[in-house]
Amino acid sequence: MGSVTGKSKDNYAATVRLKSIGVMVVLILLAVICLLPIYILAVNATRTSTDIINNGVQLIPGKYLIANIKETSHLNEIGQIHYSAIRGYLNSGIITVVATFFSVFFSSLTAYGLVVYDFKASTAAYTMILAVMMVPVQVTSVGFVNFMAQLKLTDTYWPLVLPAIAAPPIVFYMRQYMKSSFPLDIVEAARIDGSAEFRTFLTIGIPLMKPAIGVQAIFAFIANWNNFYTPSMILISRNEKQLTMPMMVQSILTNDKLSDMGVRYTSIFLSIVPVIIVYCLLSRTIVDGVAEGGVKE
User: Fold this and answer.
1) Three-state SS annotation for 185-234
2) Under 8 Å CB-to-CB from 18, ≥6 apart: which residues?
3) Contact assessment for residue 229 and residue 246, using Cβ atoms and an 8 Å cutoff
4) Contacts of 264 (CB under 8 A, 6+ apart)
């Protein structure tokens, strides 16, 4: 009897091991599929145009990254190209950081209110938020641009950052996260101790939502940094001092006078460097937040 039980345990352990290996293989394949195009982009940014055209895809980096970066500083000499990596970083950085802060902070505050406060209109308010989330941005773009023109806010950054305060997808995610893991007893204890409501949100709510905030900050940062659609509608004059990084890269990719493939790849690679850096920093924050554990009731 004992030997049969031992064999069953061994079979179960072998099955679990095989499943783990299978899952690991699938995850490795997915990681390779996701990261390989980025790696090839980075490698091509270090190669010359002749090497890229004649030899195709290569996995070994070249030695011309610095030379290609220097060449990007001369792209404005080509007609219809408006590119400056420093100016693009500055413009996109201002818009992205402010819009990300607005969307994550106020969406977390909205989700906190929907979860912590029990009022009659909470269900109706949440339903309205979900309804707004279903409306594509393209449907409202014409009215949005006309409204901004009437307010004389075109060719400014205000229409690119202020609407970020209302971010229904982030509110939805934060509410679902709080519903599953947010301890309301701590809020009640803070109220008994005399803590103000907004202070409770800042000192208790935000730290407990730290992993979810990190995730949404990554998504919001990437979405705002890569946003080409809205800035292209609002920045009508195409003033080079206002152009975002995606608009600058677009002016390169759509120009048929630039034949240097190495410079093209370099400009694209430079545009995604901040996204990679922010992702690495915030992903570490997420891991730390999860490792700290939760609060047990």
Assistant:
1) HHHHHHHHCCCCHHHHHHHHHHHHCHHHHHHHHHHHHHHHHCCCHHHHHH
2) none
3) no
4) 252, 253, 258
Amino acid identity of residue 82, one-letter, is H
Cβ atoms of residues 76 and 84 within 8 Å: yes
Cβ(106)–Cβ(165) below 8 Å = yes
Which residue shows structure tokens 């996995």?
59
Kind and range of the H or E run holding 253: helix 245-253
Per-residue pLDDT 10s for the chain (297 aa) are 555 566 676 777 788 888 999 999 999 999 999 999 999 999 999 999 999 999 888 888 999 999 999 998 888 877 778 888 999 999 999 999 999 999 999 999 999 999 998 888 888 888 898 888 888 888 889 999 999 999 999 999 999 999 999 899 999 999 988 888 888 889 989 988 888 989 999 999 999 888 889 889 988 999 999 999 999 999 998 888 899 999 999 989 888 888 889 999 999 999 999 998 988 887 776 665 555 444 444
Measure the CA–CA gap between 128 and 168, rounded to whole angstroms. Answer: 9
